[in-house]
Structures are given as structure tokens and as C-alpha cells.
Write a structure and sequence with these properties.
Two copies of one chain form a homodimer. The first copy, chain A, is α+β, with helices and mostly antiparallel strands. In chain A, 49% of the residues lie in helices and 14% in strands. In chain A, strands 1-3-2 form a three-stranded antiparallel β-sheet, with helices on one face. Chain A binds a DNA duplex through helix 4.
DNA sequence: GGGACATATCGATGTCTGTCAATATATCTG
DNA sequence: CAGATATATTGACAGACATCGATATGTCCC
């Protein structure tokens, strides 16, 4: 279930959501609706090139390495972060289109 | 914890989120990250005047009356829906600014 | 006031998930 | 190949929450 699957979804306020559409959107929102994952996103986004090595992400969020790895996996699986392995290190980078797509689904267009 | 409290928050990609800021944003996102609540929002938004009586909301989502009432309370407490009682009936209406504010916090501005 | 109706609250229950310690996998270096 | 380092996976557990039935609260009408 990736953010990209929402591209075919109507806007939230456009028409009544069918059950499957609602579940798809909720699944993506659930990934973002966690303080640790929000902090990871913002930390990565704040780095030059919007990318960061995992080894630099454990300390700032104050969680164990397996937990951070777990969160990064969820963010990657849902298409919010890109993953690139360089030798022993793994770099995660932000996919801004994902957040922007989510924002556009939520927006009412009346602003 | 209402959406309006996010007005002082930086954008998600603007700067690293502090723990309290991340928790505040996550709390609001959690309210939206549920299929039943997403459907309620979209059903209400699709009505003329973006408002609906509770009695018209139970059937479409296929949940019990107490459960629907519970979801509406969460949506109201977080500032996404307005509540107005008219006699025996209660009407909930959408506050578009709330969704738009959320959308603007998520947006990277690079779109 | 009494009965009917609309909505909200309460208590209980099952499921989901965030977290960790332990361990596995993978890559580099000597 | 052996050891070291970086990341991922597994298993377990506690806390959060969606849901329901039962009941309470509030409002209208006779």
C-alpha cells in the first residue's frame, strides 16, 4: 500500500469515500500519524539533499536501532522515503511528491 | 488537542520537529487516520452546506450508533467538525480550514 | 408529567502496534 | 577466512483503540 495508489482516489471532500478508498487513505495516514516517524521525516528533510544515513537517525529520535529500522521500513514501504544502500550504510531520502500528494487529497481547495 | 494548535508549528519539512510538536501533529493525524472517520468527513462534505444530521450518518458507514457518535466526538474535539444541536437532532458540519491547515503542514512546497 | 425519540456515555472485549532485547544478515577490512 | 560494523528481522509484551450492547441524558409532544 503506497502513497502512489492514492492518485486515483478522489479528494476527501469531493465525494463520499467508498470503504476500500477510505481504508487505503487511512492506511497511508496511519504511517504518518506517529511522532517518531514524523520526527524521522523532518530530520531527513532538514539534511542537505533531504537524505540521511540510518546511523545518524537513531540518536536524534532517542529510540533503539531496531525500532528506528522498523519505522524507516514502514515509511519506505508506503513510498514516503526512498532507500539506497551504499556499502555498509543505508541512506534514506524524502520523496516530496508523496507528502504533496497526501496534502492535496486532504485539501478542500477552498483556501 | 485541536488542529488550530498546529498553526504555530513549523512545516513538516521545514525544520526538525521537537518531541512535543511531533506528538501534537501525530495526535491530529491519528484522528484522521481511520477509515470510518474519513468516510464520515467525506459524507458530511458531500452534503449541501457541508453539514449533516447524525441520524443520516449511521447508515452509510454501517456502524452502530454509539460508534458513530464516538467518531464524531473525536472529529469535533480535534476541530475538524463543528457541532450544532437543533432540538433533538445534532448537525455536524465540516471546518475546511482544519483540513487545509493539515494539508499545508504536510506540503513540502516543492510541488 | 409521561412517553417517544435522538444522541451521548459507560464498560467490556478483541485486535493492532510501538517498543525492546536477542539474533540474523550483509558488507567491509585485515 | 575471521572479526568488526551497519542494518534488518524475530519474538514477546504492554498500551492504545475501534467496536458493541446496555444505559444515561436531553428534547419534543400530548
Amino acid at each position: 500500500m503506497a502513497v502512489a495508489d492514492l492518485e486515483t482516489c478522489p479528494t476527501l471532500v469531493e465525494a463520499p469515500l467508498a470503504e476500500a478508498e477510505a481504508e487505503a487513505l487511512a492506511a497511508t495516514l496511519r504511517v504518518i500519524a506517529d511522532p517518531a516517524r514524523l520526527r524521522l521525516i523532518s530530520f531527513i528533510a532538514a539534511q542537505p539533499g533531504s537524505e540521511a544515513c540510518v546511523c545518524n537517525l537513531t540518536a536524534p529520535v532517542g529510540l533503539s536501532q531496531p525500532t528506528v529500522s522498523h519505522h524507516l521500513k514502514l515509511l519506505h514501504d508506503s513510498g514516503i522515503l526512498d532507500r539506497e544502500q551504499r556499502g555498509r550504510w543505508v541512506h534514506y531520502s524524502l520523496r516530496p511528491e508523496a507528502l504533496d500528494l497526501l496534502a492535496s487529497v486532504l485539501s478542500t481547495g477552498s483556501a
